[in-house]
Design a protein that fits this description.
This protein is of the alpha/beta class. About 40% of the residues lie in helices and about 10% in strands. Helix 5 (about 125-135) links the parallel strand 5 (about 115) and strand 6.
Length: about 425
């Protein structure tokens, strides 16, 4: 297959797939396939509810958005961008990517290429996905069809780092496939690509990117716990240490989302399968997963110090999404704070102008309030530093609290130390 003969189909149009389809659609016709009719209807009407793509941009790209599987017959280069979550036991859940693989397999013909962008453990593409493609298509791997892996590097809500200006890792199951995959991505990525020597190397590179961040944030969280006991402001320490040129600028906080809070479990799963029990990676995961409980313990201490009865108190949580300035609710650890407060008998209101109320209800059983009541809350937790909250300042946020006594906890260091009663 030559580059000019490539007919791209992007399977999965979420935070990763849509921006990719749009970039390719600026240069060539693209099939954008998703199994969610509502998602396709929204995109066809010119709106992206993830807010990754501006509405006016959708109108100027050659992308055919569809739920019709038959449209995949017109493609010969399939890119899989479905989610790869974990299950309740923190084990990899490959069902979405394998389901997409089965769909593609039904339309695969000789000479086609399938590239995976979904985050997986090293070996998953060739060990789990390829057999499904062979079974559903009746074709032979590396004889009739070929595969590649090019891990996504999308950062939801980030308008600076986009598909076209983030170096793209590419790989292929044969040298010829590797070259074509790399050439295709080079056509849209202005800053260039990194061609990995194998699919497994590309898979491993992706999964350790987020594992590294997870471990570093875990260290910052542990330091925050220590410095709180020593009555030292963590942010002051990090700013001082950050004056050295090679100090890494990580910050403590909740670790959620579809990447950092999930990907390490893919790596540890593969490690344990290989007979190795990872120590640092799992320790970091345990600590980061426990931070919601720690935040609530600190909040409760501040309430007790101010003589605020805990049971029956009313708390306001500002922000539910997993990070600031995005509607993405996937794997948000703010829910840990909400559930822990409810265990203490605290009545919790959650306000997030970025989140979809229906999604919040379906995903977490949380009913978002339309707007907080002024002067009504014993405790206020700035959990997500949306621009509306950060720009408002401590005085405006305190207006939601009771006039006589209240606790304002700044989890994100969005306020100055003098504006809050406690911060991580």
């Amino acid at each position: 297959m030559k580059l000019e003969d490539v007919q791209v189909a992007v399977v999965g149009l979420g935070y990763v797939g849509l921006p990719l389809a749009v970039e390719f659609g600026k240069q060539r016709p693209v099939i954008g396939f998703d199994i969610n009719p509502q998602r396709i209807e929204e995109l066809c009407s010119g709106h992206d509810r993830t807010l990754e793509i501006d509405d006016d941009e959708l109108g100027f790209v050659d992308v055919h958005f569809t739920v019709d599987e038959a449209a995949l017959d017109d493609a010969n280069f399939y890119i899989v961008t479905t989610p790869t979550p974990i299950d309740d036991h923190k084990q990899p859940d490959l069902n979405p990517v394998l389901s997409a693989t089965e769909t593609i397999g039904r339309h695969l013909v000789a000479g086609d290429i399938v590239v995976y962008e979904s985050t997986v453990y090293p070996g998953a593409t060739e060990e789990r996905c390829v057999p499904v493609l062979e079974r559903t298509s009746g074709l032979k791997f590396n004889q009739d069809f070929f595969v590649g892996y090019s891990p996504e590097r999308i950062n939801p809500g980030d308008k600076e780092h986009r598909v076209y200006n983030i170096v793209k890792i590419t790989s292929g199951s044969t040298p010829e496939t590797s070259e074509l995959v790399d050439a295709l991505y080079r056509s849209i990525v202005r800053v260039g690509t990194h061609r990995a020597p194998s699919i497994k190397v590309a898979e491993a590179a992706k999964v350790i990117e987020n594992t590294q961040r997870d471990v570093n944030i875990a260290l910052m969280n542990e330091l925050a716990i220590l410095f709180n006991r020593l009555d030292i402001d963590t942010e002051d320490v990090l700013q001082a240490a950050g004056s050295k040129w090679n100090f890494l600028p990580f910050r403590p906080g909740l670790v959620g989302g579809h990447c950092i809070g999930v990907d390490p479990y893919y790596l540890t799963y593969k490690a344990q399968e290989a007979g190795y029990h990872p120590e640092i990676i799992l320790a970091g995961r345990r600590l980061n997963d426990s931070m919601g409980t720690y935040v609530v313990s600190q909040l409760i201490k501040q309430m007790v110090k101010q003589g605020i009865p805990v049971r029956g108190a009313k708390a306001l949580i500002l922000g539910l999404t997993f990070k600031e300035n995005t509607p993405d609710l996937r794997n948000s650890r703010v829910i840990d704070i909400i559930r822990e407060l409810e265990e203490y008998g605290v009545c919790v209101d959650v306000y997030d102008p970025w989140a979809d109320p229906r999604e919040a209800a379906n995903e977490y059983g949380v009913s978002l309030i339309e707007s907080p009541e002024r002067g009504a809350y014993d405790a206020i937790v700035l959990a997500v530093a949306h621009k509306q909250f950060a720009s408002a300042g401590g005085k405006a946020l305190r207006a939601y609290g009771r006039e006589d006594r209240q606790v304002l906890y700044d989890l994100k260091h969005a306020l100055s130390a003098s504006e809050s009663d406690a911060r991580l």
